[in-house]
Amino acid sequence: MKSNESDYSYYYSVLQQTFDQMNDKPTGGVQVDEHDDKGEVKTKGLKEILTSLLLIEEQAKTDNNEWEQAQEEEKNLFEENHRKKTKTMLDYQTEFHESDHVLEETHRVRKRKSRASTNAAITSVIAADLEATSAQKGSGTGLGQGAAGPNPGPQRRLWVKNRSQDWWDKCNSPDFPDEEFKKWFRMGKDTFEMICNELTSVVAKENTMLRDAVPVRQRVAVCIWRLATGEPLRLVSRRFGLGISTCHKLVLEVCSAIKNVLMPKYLQWPDDESVQMIKDEFVSVSGIPNVVGSMYTTHIPIIAPKISVAAYFNKRHTERNQKTSYSITVQGVVDPRGVFTDVCIGWPGSMPDDQVLEKSALYQRANNGLLKDVWIVGSSGYPLMDWVLVPYTQPHLTWTQHAFNEKIGEVQRVAKDSFARLKGRWSCLQKRTEVKLQDLPVVLGACCVLHNICEMRNEEIDPELMIELMDDEMVPEIGLRSSNAMKARDTIAHNLLHHNHAGTSFLS
């Protein structure tokens, strides 16, 4: 509209100039009379045109004002609609939050009511059982003399499945023969009682409203029976009158308690006084001085793990038994009585003995100088080092070397026989177990601690339980790792032969 207005103004100015020129007198050419009719007509026509242009200009101004007014109204209408939409959205959001809060509060109320009704139902059931028991006692009619005894208390059949515990009640009786108890649990009653007393503070549980806790003696018995026999959990469950999951849980809990409570007391590196006694006893056995332990590594069969299967594959056992075998290792150092003073448990079965040794805490202890000037005797599967004494392995041995190997074999046999008693006493170590791989070190550690307790208390093992160990020895790639150890071994071998401590079988 503004563009039209400017055009009209331009035309108006042009016409106005033309009109003024026509009214002026000409400077040359033909003279025109002022009263000429044609001049009057032209003047009149130009005035009419000018008037029309003025009207058009006024109309353009009017249209422009109307357009601006329409634009303003449209702008006001848009802003009003925007305000209404914004207000509507805010109101909807507020209502949504309020509704969500109401629903959440309703859900909490329903949960409280549900818990209250459940507790009320449980209370009513127990109260009914108590009333029924009281009524039967008052009328003189007992509940029977079954496994529950003459005073079984409130019945909880909704919560506990009735299982027979006759076998365990028989074993737990004071009249049960000690020899029979030892045959089943690999230890006498006194040793079993001592273990229960040591673990009571850790494994004891309190009774609840729904069920009575399993007694400490029964908890320990479940664990020791499982370790001693290696029976599947379903058979252990039937024997002790407990659920399968309960038996599995008890075994792990008691093994963990044995590791945490009894291991620091019954499986530890000897102090200085004990070290001197161990040296003297090994000298009396072999004539080799400064020996503080005999070392051996055995394999425990396991089910094929889900991860790192190749690492646990036992090639040597697989070839011998013609059956795929997987295992983990147990490295142990024993004193002259066969009591473990150090154990390293859990490395994969494909790892040779020398690598297991390098991964052990014993190796770190030696690197820190704690095994200086002493020997730990190992088999040919270990390397000769400043603190590890092993037999000669090269071909064509001399008389002196033969004599040394004979005597060092006597020391090595102490550890091997101890591991044979360990596996014979705890049969779970002879077969693939149901225990998960991550829980197995705790179970094996518990077996080693129980072995030490039996050895210290002179619990003899039935000769029928003894087994022959089938652990192959692999000569390490670098068998000689210390020149000083080579010289020391040669000196020991020379002294053994020439001081009548060894070699008599070769000289006869």
From TrEMBL:
Per the record, GO CC terms? Answer: nucleus
- Say if the entry is tagged with keyword Metal-binding: yes
Q: Where in the cell is it found?
A: Nucleus
Q: Does the keyword Chaperone apply?
A: no
- Tell me the domain of life: Eukaryota
The record lists the membrane-crossing segments as none
UniProt GO MF annotations: hydrolase activity; metal ion binding; nuclease activity
Keywords from the named record: Hydrolase, Metal-binding, Nuclease, Nucleus
Which residues are in the DDE Tnp4 domain?
A: 296-452
Tell me which Pfam families the record gives: DDE_Tnp_4 (PF13359)
Q: Which cofactors does the annotated protein need, by name? A: a divalent metal cation
Q: Record's family? A: Belongs to the HARBI1 family.
Q: What is this protein called?
A: Harbinger transposase-derived nuclease
Organism, scientific name = Artemisia annua (Sweet wormwood)
